[in-house]
Write a structure and sequence with these properties.
The complex is a heterodimer.
Chain A lengths: L4 E10 L8 E11 L4 H14 L22 E2 L2 E2 L21 E5 L8 E3 L2 E2 L2 H8 L21 H11 L6 H5 L6 H12 L8 H14 L10 H5 L7 H16 L3
Parallel strand pairs in A: 1-5
Antiparallel strand pairs in A: 1-2, 3-4, 3-5, 6-7
Chain B lengths: L13 H8 L5 H4 L3 E5 L3 H13 L2 E5 L17 E2 L11 H11 L6 H20 L14 E2 L9 E2 L5 H19 L2 E4 L2 E9 L2 E9 L5 E5 L2 E4 L20 H8 L4 E2 L4 E7 L22 E5 L16 E2 L1 H5 L9 H13 L11 E4 L1 H14 L7 H27 L8 E10 L2 E2 L12 E3 L17 H21 L13 H20 L5 H15 L6 H21 L11 H25 L23 H4 L1 E7 L5 E7 L14
Parallel strand pairs in B: 1-2, 1-10, 2-6, 10-18
Antiparallel strand pairs in B: 3-5, 4-5, 7-8, 8-9, 11-17, 11-19, 12-16, 13-14, 13-15, 15-16, 19-20
Helix pairs in contact in B: 3-6, 3-12, 4-5, 5-12, 10-11, 14-15, 14-16, 15-16
Classes of the chains: A alpha+beta, B alpha+beta.
């Protein structure tokens, strides 16, 4: 692979705090190597800002391996940028060329308030999990793991749903700021496994109720969430959640 | 004298006996006992959830925006358990023995045996939580092999095992949050331990969003904050992984054990330039199917595909025929360094070796064609089938490699090189996981206890969950049973004020230096010293130089670091400054420990102590002990030794030939 260096113009959202109005700032990024990751490019920019006596750009990041779900930049109008199935930290600068202008914003959703610059508050996702994203089994309650054979097809589907990293790109990509893909991934993971069946109905009802309470929008099936999901979580999970939810609503006794 | 409080009796009865005789706390009393948990990775989340289920009042802290992001999430390959589902001769004893041997006889037998005993329960618990492990067509769980063993005991979920296990523990934790048993403090960092009458009684934490300092009381404090690999700046750890919680514990009287035992993982993506912020692991599970080689000719610049079979040196298979590509990590890493140092490295930097899947792709293709009874098909079709099998097993890893390097590993071999990955050293704990400070415990990678001088693959996840789910619920009760008369201490107690003032003072210092260099500048410098002189190979002269260099760097840091912004706001640079300040102290202790241990063992390779064919040479007569260091003021430490007694595993020269 050929490597090259480039100079870029960044238009970055700067916002001092939650209550600040915020706005775009133009920053020049010089001598950026095509081998850098997108966040390493930001490291270089921040190092220069610090050396110039300015405040570096605040952004969330941690594992930089595309698995923790912490990084969250809206790049040129796309959640996590131009590469499909990729988190911001795994996006590399060879996606860009010399002279490009890159617009970088935080996730935009009422339920994800901005804390500072590109950092948002995603604690709403934790509260949705608290509403039912688990199987109620205390430590020590379990039987031998192989007592419960699980059809490989369902196990694989469950795993595919469980691959969600909770980054919030689905919400950021959605014109309604809906969290349906996130919620459906967890509901599907557990609905597809026999261990998840005892709490199946209440789980779907309670998680959806919490999602609404947090202020996420409704799903209108545009599919932007699936298109932007870095883990390529399938839209069929939303269909499954709808079935689970309607079924639970019709048959639950509470 | 260090007392590890190992129960008497035969090894395989110790834990049963302990559980049968430890003190219990009745449910009504549990409700008024408060426990603080620092860190929400596998150890912290499983401990917080399990203690919450028991009825204790738990407060859990993590610096990330959600407990689900802790770095356990990035573990790829798998988790070991002595289930013997494969009928290949596995047992609790085998797992115990492999772990002690793999750790090069520097681990405590009783702890390791307990770990092996509870390993099976972990798999059961995780499956019950809905963790989607890989399964066979019959619906039962699948296993694979990892380094340092000859049985298949590793359970996995594609290359995302850590993620699935952590999300399991996280969901159990969130359930307890919903039930009101656990209060979760995300975006909070612990910055000081509060001790009252010699016991750990709470912490000072900083709310990372507002910058406010908070006081929290606990009858006990659990440090589950992971390892300290980021002292090297470049490692496979997450950017935020740090030693701060464990280091504050050290400065408050907890001993730090075997700090020089660090694990360099053999298969990581090589460094590409000065901008590099972290290194990415390619799971050890790839060594099940990948073959590692370098050209037989020095400075060979041909493409991998242009180098014929008989001009390739499969050096692990050559040197270690019995274990081949599946030798333990320390052995594989040193072998790669040896080849590269000798001029056989590949790629532009020459600091890399090949990890090649061509043979595996063809083998799997043939098996698949046979299964589907496809008869005579072309080689292209076989390769296509083989690639599909490999994609199912390792797809996410191959994708990650392609994104980072821009190369397609299905077509050309991966380039890999060793990188800092895990730290076996950590807070010294006794059999009950208690540090030398009463009421202060340490679980998971943050403690030192189970992996000796080298950890085997797929054992970190096992240890984190063993400590959190199955050990601490018993051993903590044994301590708290004597605390039922201790009422919650109000946080206006002078000890809290004093601890908070200490934190304030440090923060003020950072904000007033207003120097000229960023925190990262110093972190990178420290990392380079550590990697060059306390990395894969160490010697007396280098270590002495490193200690002097670190002292000088630390002094400069406190004179000249620049922390922008202010302390009463969200300020990532201030967070980093605190962590790097602690690394600058720990780094010196690591070198001191490495200097003291004039033997080679596991990941610690002293050039002065090797066999004629270049293998690590232990010195059991002089160094069969745990080195536990007591902090005695700036740069001063006192060494305490815990002798290691081996009743079941008689130490021998480790051989994987």
């Amino acid at each position: 692979m050929e490597h090259y260096n480039m100079n870029l113009t960044l238009k970055v959202w700067r916002q001092k705090s939650k209550n600040d109005q915020g706005g775009f700032e133009t920053i020049q990024a010089k001598n950026i190597s095509s081998e850098m990751s997108f966040l390493e490019m930001f490291d270089v920019v921040n190092e220069e800002l610090i050396n110039d006596g300015k405040e570096p750009v605040a952004f969330d990041h941690d594992c930089r391996e595309g698995i923790c779900g912490m990084c969250s930049m809206h790049i040129n109008g796309r959640a996590h940028g131009p590469w499909d199935g990729t988190t911001t930290c795994q996006l590399h600068m060879r996606a860009f060329k010399d002279g490009d202008t890159i617009t970088v914003e935080p996730w935009r959703a009422g339920a994800f308030p901005v804390l500072k610059d590109l950092t948002v508050d995603r604690s709403a996702f934790d509260r949705i999990i608290e509403a039912g994203g688990y199987i109620s089994v205390n430590t020590g309650n379990a039987q031998d793991a192989n007592c419960l054979p699980i059809d490989k097809h369902n196990a694989d589907l469950s795993f595919a749903a469980a691959a969600c990293i909770g980054c919030g790109a689905c919400v950021a990509a959605c014109k309604n700021s809906s969290a349906m893909l996130f919620v459906s991934a967890k509901v599907s993971q557990l609905a597809l496994l026999p261990q998840g069946h005892p709490e199946r109905k209440t789980r779907a009802l309670n998680m959806v109720a919490q999602m609404d309470k947090e202020g996420f929008g409704s799903c209108t099936n545009t599919g932007a969430c699936e298109a932007e999901c870095p883990k390529e979580i399938s839209l069929t999970n939303i269909a499954r959640l709808n079935r689970e939810f309607i079924g639970a609503g019709l048959t639950t006794e509470k | 004298m260090l007392n590890a409080k190992i129960p008497a009796g035969p090894l395989n009865n110790k834990w049963e006996d302990y559980k049968g005789h430890c003190k219990l706390v009745n449910p009504a009393n549990k409700r008024s006992l408060e426990v603080i948990v620092i860190g929400t990775g596998l150890a912290g989340a499983s401990a917080a959830a399990s203690l919450g289920e028991l009825g204790y009042k738990v407060k859990a802290f993590c610096f990330q925006d959600s407990p689900r992001r802790a770095h356990s999430i990035a573990a790829q390959g798998g988790i070991n358990a002595a289930k013997n589902y494969q009928n290949d001769g596995d047992s609790v004893f085998r797992l115990f023995y492999d772990t002690v041997k793999g750790g090069d006889y520097r681990a405590r037998e009783a702890n390791v045996h307990r770990l092996a005993e509870v390993s099976g329960n972990i798999i059961d618990q995780c499956v019950a939580q809905g963790v989607p492990f890989a399964r066979e067509y019959g619906g039962l769980l699948s296993n694979r092999s990892f380094g340092g063993t000859q049985v298949q005991r590793t359970f996995y979920a594609a290359g995302q095992t850590g993620q699935q296990l952590l999300l399991g523990a996280y969901s159990a934790l969130e359930r307890q949050v919903a039930l009101g048993n656990v209060k979760m403090y995300s975006r909070h960092e612990m910055l000081e331990i509060v001790k009252i009458d010699g016991k750990a009684r709470g912490i000072i934490a900083r709310d990372l969003v507002t910058g406010e300092l908070e006081r929290h009381f606990g009858h006990a404090v659990l440090i589950c904050s992971g390892g300290y690999g980021n002292v090297f700046f470049l490692s496979t750890n997450a950017m935020g992984s740090n030693v701060t919680a464990a280091w504050k514990a050290t400065k408050n009287g907890a001993y730090f054990a075997n700090p020089c035992f660090t694990q360099i993982h053999p298969t990581c993506i090589p460094v590409s330039g000065d901008h590099q912020s972290k290194l990415t692991l390619m799971s050890e599970s790839l060594r099940n199917d990948g073959r590692i080689w370098v050209p037989k000719k020095q400075n060979d610049t041909r493409k991998a595909s242009d180098i014929p079979e008989d001009e390739r040196d499969y050096y692990l298979e050559r040197r270690y025929p019995a274990f081949g590509n599946l030798v333990p990590r320390d052995v594989a890493s040193r072998a790669a360094k040896e080849r590269c140092d000798a001029g056989y490295g590949v790629g532009t930097s020459k600091q890399a070796v090949f990890l090649d899947f061509a043979a595996a792709i063809e083998r799997y293709g043939n098996i698949e064609a046979g299964k589907r009874q496809m008869g005579n098909i072309s080689k292209e079709e076989i390769i296509k089938l083989g690639k599909e099998v490999v994609a199912e097993k390792y797809g996410n890893l191959f994708d990650m490699y392609a994104k980072i390097t821009g190369e397609n590993p299905y077509e050309t071999p991966m380039r890999i090189y060793p990188a800092v990955h895990y730290t076996m050293g950590g807070l010294w704990v006794d059999y009950e996981l208690q540090t030398t400070v009463p009421g202060l415990y340490s679980l998971g990678e943050a403690n030192f206890s189970d992996h000796g001088a080298n950890r085997l693959g797929a054992s970190a996840l096992m240890q984190g969950l063993a400590d959190g789910y199955f050990v601490i619920p018993y051993t903590l009760g044994n301590y708290l049973a004597d605390e039922i008369r201790t009422k919650a201490i109000p946080t206006d107690h002078p000890a809290f004020t004093e601890a908070e003032n200490k934190v304030k003072e440090t923060i003020n210092k950072f904000m007033t230096i207003k120097g000229t260099k960023s925190v990262d500048f110093y972190h990178k410098k420290l990392g380079k010293i550590m990697w060059d002189k306390c990395g894969m190979a160490r010697n007396e002269q280098g270590l002495k130089e490193a200690i002097a260099e670190i002292k000088a760097l630390r002094a400069e840091f406190w004179q000249n670091v620049r922390v922008p912004g202010n302390e009463k706001e969200f300020n990532p640079e201030l967070e980093k400054a605190g962590r790097v300040a602690d690394f600058l102290e720990l780094g010196e202790l690591m070198c001191l420990d490495a200097l003291n241990r004039r033997e080679s063992c596991g990941g610690h390779f002293r050039e002065e102590s090797q066999t004629p064919d270049g293998e690590a040479q232990r010195d059991d007569a002089n160094f069969s002990y745990v080195a536990a260091w007591e902090y005695k003021g700036d740069g001063q430490y006192e060494l305490h030794k815990e002798p290691l007694v081996f009743e079941e595993c008689k130490p021998t020269q480790r051989s994987y030939k």
